[in-house]
Fold:
Amino acid sequence: MPSYRAPLRDMQFLLHEVLATESVLAELPAHAGTDRATLDAVLEEGAKFCEQLLQSLNLPGDAEGCHYDRETRSVTTPAGFVAAYTQYRDAGWPTLSADPDFGGQGLPYVLNTAFFEMGNSANQAWLMYPGLTHGAYECLHAHGSDELKAAYLPKLVTGEWLGTMCLTEPHCGTDLGLLRSKATPRDDGSYAISGSKIFISAGEHDLTPNIVHLVLARLPDAPEGSKGISLFLVPKFIPAADGTPGERNAIFCAGIEHKMGIHANATCQLVLEDARGWLIGEPNRGLQAMFVMMNAARVAVGVQSLGLGEVAYQNAAAYAKDRRQGRALAGPAEPDQPADTLLVHPDVRRQLLTARAYTEGARALLYWTALQIDIEHHHPDEDARKQAADLVALLTPVCKAFVTDNGFIATTQAQQVFGGHGYIHEWGVEQFVRDARINMIYEGTNGVQALDLLGRKVLGDMGTRLRKFGDLVKSFIEEEGVNEAMQEFVNPLADLAGKVEKMTMEIAMKAMGNRDEAGAAASDYLRIVGHLTFAWLFARMAKVALAKADGGDPFYAAKLATARFYFARLLPETAGLIRAGRSGADNLMALDAALF
Structure:
């Protein structure tokens, strides 16, 4: 049975020593009273909930999976899931960062992100049920009518009801312009919605008495393509006059998918048969409204892989300390034992440090981004909000794609440490690998994220957002460039920053003549920019650790060792990526389609 302990020390290191979260929040009127003691207290209580309850349900929940009843078209979650959700709701966890006007606690998003990291480490499949509701809440909060907000937001905020988003159809995934679901106006101001949706996470379950679906569909006079999509709120049960679930709506689960991972989360096929729905936002602008939910979900998927990387690393490190196999190449480390532990082997340490570095880098990036979201939403200065919004927009695809790619690398490296035991269910790590793999396709595949970063976020605004992030990096380089102790971190950071700038200009020039050039370079480019963000954040972490390393706390020595490993062993990947990204589109597009 795998184990999990929340990495509170590293979480607090980032929040308090690197990101100065308390000082940042003090500038935001909505969060000015959120001090260090509050942040730590919430994290400590969240750790108890995740370690003691959610983690114990993860392995058995994966083995049992969800149960679908064809007669009632209903889904039952694994044993213990409903009781755990009741405890979660009763403790007020759903309300953590939600608007107090609708029953929320109004705490910062960065704190909710840290809590969700722990939940994902403990049990990603379970956390996806309430986790998806946060995106539905954000979308309805931003675009819903006052009537819809009053009827549904308090239920979503308190966790009394849960939400989903319904985009994908059997014939269309990423290309939502192809969707066929129809919405016909009714006389009462609602709409009759018909169609089918697939791959709907948490689309049916027994955790709450009602489920609020956000559904994309087309109005009768809608233009073709993505410009003709509207967004609708479609409840499983239509609320009665007193707000309780009333009439059963005509949206049903037709089956659940038997997936590679997250077996305990119901991935549903949904059928709508003239289901009643209510328009969210403006007609034919549903995709723009839904993007509020999708962007929140993209950051959240990065947090999922962060959680999995952490728990996989923890279990692999514990195994390596205990498992005895072979001898150290320099001679027996423990001659009185029949063999040395796995930690004497350099390659095992490479695997563990890879998982550790990618996890610690992801935590830094996601917490920093979450703090920028708090600034974007709550800073009193418009320029500060715009700056934060641009940085979040730029780095959302990196948070999703770079972190999930690295999360899969981290879990597979951890699995390798276990050897044959890494493929046995009871050890847990093979589940982490399966669960991590799906995150790379959620909310737009990582290839789509790469196109979004390079095509829309960088080339689309002539590099304005990228320069804003580049200014942060350059400012740090200028500040620390005279610090001799920081040269091992600052010099490679400065080198990569210059190469990113040069490569961006080169791709922009080539793409003007052939847009395939951007598509051919996009995935390599995203990974390079991802490394730039990690290098910047690892350098910031190293600066703090260097200043405190002489105090005798081994935490700082470990942080420096991990940063040095990252710069020496992982960052050099960018050299090959730059060469591959610059190689152009011809080597990809030259082969005739018939020869594939």
Remarks:
- The two ends are 44 Å apart (CA to CA).
